[in-house]
Amino acid sequence: MPFWNYAKEDIMVLTDEPYNLKYMPTRRNILSALRWLVKDAQPGDCLFFHYSRHGGRIVDLDGRRVDGHRVDGFEKVDWERAGEIVSEDLYDVMVKPLPAGCCLNALFDSCYSGSVLDLPYIYQPSDHLKQHAANSRALTKYPQAHVVLFASCSDFQGSGGVIIRGGEFLGAMSSAFISSLTTNPTQTYLQVLASVQVILRRTQRQTPQLSRF
């Protein structure tokens, strides 16, 4: 990411191609990478996390509602054996350790990802903030870090993909996000949200969401 001045040694990519066990997106490796991302974070640091893979919904831990979230590891065998990564895991590992004055921007390009980080405020189409009732508990536990989530869809929607130049398959939200920032890299969060909404409407039936703390 030379455009945004991230040094190569400050970037970690997990992928199943080329085959490398250390960087395969298994549950263990994903959680390890998240810990690496936030380790030694300082006030003034700006972190970026991008997840483009499967997502799902599970019964919440209190057993009363089906609004929990999960992200899957490399393959079915891995998450069946090692377990799924749920919203509480993501919060505890990626958000809770952040110090005041640190900024985390997260992009989740996966099904049912609308409130995957349990952030308490979600932007409505009118650009007004709405407190997310289910996530209001976050107000009592969040650090003073600035956390922003771009989700590819609501908690009740699937997330599509597109074929880009060269025949490569890419998540539709990831493609729209890249296109938006490539065209105009100095947008506000709301401008990026509006831009990707326009792009996705051309081919997809999903509503990207922006939430923050």
UniProtKB/TrEMBL annotation:
The similarity comment for this entry is:
Belongs to the peptidase C14B family.
Gene Ontology terms: biological process? proteolysis
Residue intervals of the Peptidase C14 caspase domain: 22-212
The protein depicted here goes by the name Peptidase C14, caspase domain-containing protein
Entry-linked InterPro entries: Metacaspase, Pept_C14_caspase
Q: Which GO terms describe its cellular component?
A: cytoplasm
Pfam families referenced in this protein's UniProt entry, alphabetically: Peptidase_C14
An example of a GO molecular function for this protein is:
cysteine-type endopeptidase activity
Q: Which domain of life is it from?
A: Eukaryota
- Organism field: Suillus plorans
Phylogenetic lineage: Eukaryota, Fungi, Dikarya, Basidiomycota, Agaricomycotina
